[in-house]
Each structure stands twice: as C-alpha cells, then as structure tokens.
Amino acid sequence: MLHRRHFLQLGSLGLSALTFSSFRGRMTAQKPLVLSTWDAGIAANKAAWQILRNGGRALDAVEQGVRVTEASLNCCVGLGANPDRDGYVTLDACIMDENFNCGSVLFLEKIKHPISVARRVMEKTPHVMLAGSGAQQFAVAEGFPLESGELSEDAKRAYQNWLKKSEYKPVINIENSKRQEAFVPTKLENGDWNHDTIGMIALDAKGNLSGSCTTSGMGFKMRGRIGDSPIIGAGLFVDNEVGAAVATGQGEDIIRICGAHTIVELMRQGMDPETACKKAMERLLKVKGIDKAKAIQAGFIAISKSGEYGGYALQKGFNFAVCHADDKNFLVDAKPLI
Ligand code: ASP
Fold first, then answer.
1. In the chain, domain spans
2. Which residue, 8, 275, 292, 335, is most buried by CB atoms nearer than 10 A?
3. Is residue 227 marked as binding?
4. Which residues participate directly in catalysis (predicted)?
C-alpha cells in the first residue's frame, strides 16, 4: 500500500521518509520515539533521546527528560514555578512503566525533582501515592536535598502582582488568549512562552512504553489543591500492550473523564492516537459544556505500541514536541476541538 502513503514534507527539518510518515493523517515514527507536552518539551526530549538512542529504557528516558524542565528555574514546572495563593510552591508528579508499576507524589514542597521521588515511591515502597509532609519525609530519607523554598525571581514578581487583587480565579492559560494580568508568563531564553506541566511518553527500542508527568499545577491555587497530573489514569496512563497517554490543562476536568486512561482504552478499541485524543476531548467538552469549556484549556498526547502518535487540544495554542532521531526533535501544533 506504499502508493497510498504520503510522506510529510516538513521543509527545513528535512524529515526522512524512512523514519516519519503520515498515512491518512496517522503519524508514525520508527521506535524509539519520545513525545512531550508544550515547547519546553524540545529540551526535555533531547535529554530523553540520549537514553533512547543508546537502547535505554523508556522509563529512564521519561524520568531524565522531565528532570530538565523541573530544574529550569525560569519555568512553571518545578521549584521555579508560581506558588499557591499562600505563597508556597507545591509540586505534583507521577511516573508509570511498562509493567503497570506506578508511583506519584502530591503536594510536595522544597524538593527539586518530584519525578524522581515518584519513581522511588514506585520502586521502594508498596504504595502508589505519597502526599505532603509524608512525601517530603520520604524524599529526604531517600537522600533528596531539602531546598530553601524561596520563590524564583519570576515567581516572586508574579505573586506580588497577583496579591494586588488576590482574586481567586484559577484558570489554566490558553495560549492564544490574553492571560490574566496576574498570571505573568515566564519566558525561556529563546523567548517562547513556557507552560505549567510537562507530560512525557516514550517508546523504547525494545518496544516498551513508559510515561511521566510533573507540574506545579495552577499558579495561585488554593493551598492543598491537586490536579490531574499526579493521578494515574487521569494525568498519565500506560498499558504496554496498547499505548500511553498524558494530559495537560485544566486538571479538574481531565480528572472527571479519567483523561489518559480513556485515551488508552479508545486505542485498545482500534483508534489511532490522534483520534483517541480527540474522542476523549469531545467527552471533556460534553461534560463541561461549551460555554465553560471556552474559558479553559486542555491538551492530550498519545503513542500507540506500534509507534503511531498524535495529540488533540480543547483550544488552539497547544503544541507538543516529538523526537525520533538525533536531528528530528520538532513541535507539532495539536488540532483544536473548539
Ligand atoms: N494539569 C495541571 C493541573 O491541573 C496543570 C497544567 O497542565 O497546566 O494541575
């Protein structure tokens, strides 16, 4: 059926027809392959790729990849992120491997790499989730340094700005709309806007899948608020027989439809990743209602066991980074539902 296959022309990226193809809109890459949410995913994919290109395990790739974003102090993920409305940065993360092993941390403070603590929860405890001071106690016992908790310069400025009105209007940024004045966006060195969560999914050379997700949640959220990102099935789900999916955006609504698990189950029924993400997004829209949905953003990305991949957004502005070769790490604009 080669004559029915058309290879995407990605101009300056010079993507090779042998490794990247689109068949009736279905995007496929040879393994290994890594995807992550938003433009910060380009840097994260680079780190993940170093592991994947050497035959490494998807689990190691998704951990090391998002650590780059967590460590970036001018980013809305990790300790440099915007604080809650009481002025504290609280972090959520989860990780899942090819054998249904999973771990997560919620409401974790003063620890630089929540994703690695989530992995330790998965590997060193009989549990899946640890929260708050218990998660921090576990992290410190595992040798993770306790950081000062001081806000980054960007976060200080954003928080001071927010305090002027102290209006509690938790909204996940919609990239193509004007942000709330208080939600001062931070900038990467290259001038791109940065975002609040990084979700990463990878397929390694052996054909095994894994995923990770790490976030500070919403800027100026109510103290104790947790979104979808550390919740297995909502923010992230991996079934090594079928595929993997990860979410970003308004966590409350992603939880309501068990976003990532729903996408994987739709792929199990035969849908390609983009269609599965779209169907899950349609469910979110139906539950939320069009009027309320217009005020929020959500994005899903997914990989199938065979290396097909795709994503879908509620609104315009969501993109994801795809990497499947040394010189093939690029952004894809997700189609919007609204
Ligand atoms: N999903 C995250 C949350 O609700 C936020 C985000 O993806 O930007 O906590």
1. 30-336
2. 275
3. yes
4. 197
